[in-house]
Write a structure and sequence with these properties.
This protein is α/β, with parallel strands linked by helices and about 375 residues long. About 45% of the residues lie in helices and about 15% in strands. Helix 4 runs parallel beside helix 5, helix 6 crosses helix 7 and helix 12 packs across helix 13.
Length: about 375
């Protein structure tokens, strides 16, 4: 045990969990391992992009503070795309053209990922944990793409199964009018069909939320018993406020992508009682080692933002990425990284399990249901 490990017991636990101490005999390459991310740091879903980005940065900062991977720091280069397809594609094309880029990490948005995938697949660059639950980001047979979070289909199935169990039969669906929202609608529609439930009405909301009030009125008029929400950011905010103004007690059910801390804060009392599926454990569940690590490193990052499920997701994605890097061996290459990632079977990341089985499958099947309490926090 080094003096550093002995004087930092929590760091020692992280080292034990990740095994990222420099290995004897490794080549003395000290150049940064450069990974690149295009995400929404501005625009309608910036609260999600920022939380995911900050969670990952907190993790990488802690790892770099312990010497990085074999003495090499992880450098996360991030460009804002504003949740715009053309900007995202331009960012990723630039990353791929740069020979210093080792991998793409946590790129965000269903439409953006669909547009960038052909070039990503052609290049063979590792595409790690894109931030979407869309099935289109899970092409079968492509070994350079690594999904961690469950699909929107899996989240929708959990929500619909819950509604069917408690006797709800007439369900409305409101979804964002883009590829992201359409994927959620398709997942919800398939789940409703499996449970032999008919939706009362389906309405769309534009990404700029310009028609949210009108959509809320049309859905409320259809008198559903509950509503599934397939949207995030500003569309969620405006639509929920519109529905609450007409049907105060209407049960609302949303997928994890909705649950950014900023969205809940802006919704205020209108968020109380909403059920939200989660693909990560609670960022307050300190009985889990990964959450204790996250809270410690999040605090050390001093970004002033509130710890959230999305931030924890970014942190866990970074931890898994670092573990795959470490197992890739002393001469790090993309090919070695891809092989080492597919070797991560039943990996326990501080109490959270990931299992990379085959291309096209998510490494995590974790889906939990939470409710927004009176303090704006999620409760189980």
């Amino acid at each position: 045990m080094t003096a550093f490990e002995a004087s930092h017991p929590t760091r020692r636990l992280l080292l034990a969990g990740l095994a990222i101490t420099p290995l004897i005999g490794r080549a003395q390459d000290r150049s940064p391992i450069r990974i690149c991310q295009s995400t929404a740091l501005s625009g309608p879903l910036s609260d999600l992009g920022q939380a995911m980005h900050q969670g990952a940065r907190a993790c990488f900062a802690a790892i770099n503070g312990m010497g990085g991977i074999g003495g090499r720091p992880i450098e996360l280069v991030t460009l804002d795309d504003g949740y715009e397809v053309q900007r995202a594609v331009a960012n990723v094309n630039g990353f791929i053209a740069d020979k210093r880029t080792f991998a793409l990490f946590n790129c965000m948005g269903t439409a953006m990922i669909q547009a960038m995938l052909p070039k990503v697949i052609e290049s063979g660059i590792p595409f790690f944990a894109p931030f979407t639950g869309a099935l289109l980001a899970r092409p079968a047979g492509v070994r350079s793409i690594f999904m961690i979070r469950p699909s929107y289909f899996e989240e929708a199935e959990q929500l619909v199964q819950h509604l069917a169990t408690i006797g709800i039969r007439r369900i409305g669906i409101a979804y964002q009018n883009n590829l992201f929202g359409k994927e959620i609608y398709d997942g919800a529609r398939a789940a409703l069909d499996r449970h032999k439930l008919a939706d009362a009405v389906a309405v769309t909301v534009e990404t700029d939320a310009s028609d949210a009030a009108d959509a809320a009125g049309r859905l409320a008029a259809a008198n559903p018993q509950a509503v599934l929400l397939g949207m995030a950011g500003k569309p969620t905010l405006n639509f929920v406020k519109g529905v609450r103004a007409q049907r105060k007690g209407l049960p609302l059910y949303a997928l994890s992508i909705m649950g950014a801390a900023d969205t809940l804060k802006l919704l205020g009392e209108d968020a109380i009682g909403m059920t939200v599926s989660q693909v990560m454990p609670s960022p307050r569940k300190v009985s889990m080692q990964i959450v204790r690590d996250f809270q410690r490193d999040w605090k050390a990052a001093s970004n002033g933002a509130e710890a959230s499920y999305v931030a924890l997701e970014g942190y866990i994605n970074a931890r898994v990425f670092a573990e795959a890097l470490n197992r890739a061996g002393r001469n790090l290459t993309r090919a070695a990284f891809i092989e080492s990632t597919w070797g991560l079977r039943s990996l326990d990341v501080g109490g959270f399990e990931v299992n990379f089985t085959e291309p096209g499958k998510s490494a995590s099947r974790f889906v939990d249901l939470t409710m927004v309490g009176r303090d704006g926090r999620f409760i189980r």
